[in-house]
Design goal:
about 140 residues; alpha+beta; about 20% helix; globular; binds zinc ion
C-alpha cells in the first residue's frame, strides 16, 4: 500500500548553486549528496517534516534530467514519489487499473530504495514514482 508522500523531485542545473537557496533562504539542512549512476543524476536531500525534497542534477547529457532541463531551463518539479510498503503489489495494482508503467520491475535508486515510475500520460501529467525502503 502507498503510505505517504516520500519526496518531491526537483530538477536543477547545479546542486551546488541550489543548495544555498534551500539552506539560507528556507532554512533547511542538506542531509547529503549522493550520485545515482544508474539514473545519471546527482541528488541532494532535505527533510521537510518527514517529506523530503530531492534535488536532481544531471551527470550526463543523456540523463532524463538533462532532457527535462532542455524543456524547463530554470528547472522545476520533476516528479512526486509515494512511499510503498509493497512496491511489487502497488505496481501490479496500478497496471491493472490501466496505468502505463515506465518500469515493470523496480530499480535501485538513491538510499538503495526500490523505485519505479508511472508514465505521466496515465497520471494526469505528473511523473509519479513509487518507492520502497531498501532492506
Ligand atoms: Zn525520486
Amino acid at each position: 500500500m502507498l503510505q505517504k508522500i516520500d519526496h518531491i523531485g526537483i530538477a536543477v542545473k547545479s546542486i551546488d548553486a541550489a543548495v544555498p537557496y534551500y539552506e539560507n533562504a528556507l532554512g533547511f539542512k542538506c542531509e547529503g549528496v549522493e550520485e545515482v549512476a544508474e539514473q545519471k543524476v546527482k541528488t541532494a536531500f532535505f527533510n521537510v517534516g518527514g517529506v523530503h525534497i530531492e534535488l536532481l542534477e544531471p551527470t550526463s547529457s543523456d540523463s532524463p534530467i538533462a532532457k527535462f532541463l532542455e524543456k524547463n531551463p530554470h528547472g522545476g518539479i520533476h516528479h512526486v514519489a509515494f512511499n510503498s510498503n509493497a512496491i511489487t503489489d502497488d505496481l501490479a495494482k496500478a497496471e491493472s487499473a490501466g496505468v502505463v508503467l515506465l518500469n515493470k520491475e523496480p530499480k535501485i535508486g538513491a538510499h538503495a530504495k526500490k523505485i519505479a515510475f508511472l508514465h505521466p500520460k496515465s497520471t494526469f501529467g505528473v511523473l509519479t514514482e513509487i518507492c520502497q525502503d531498501g532492506e
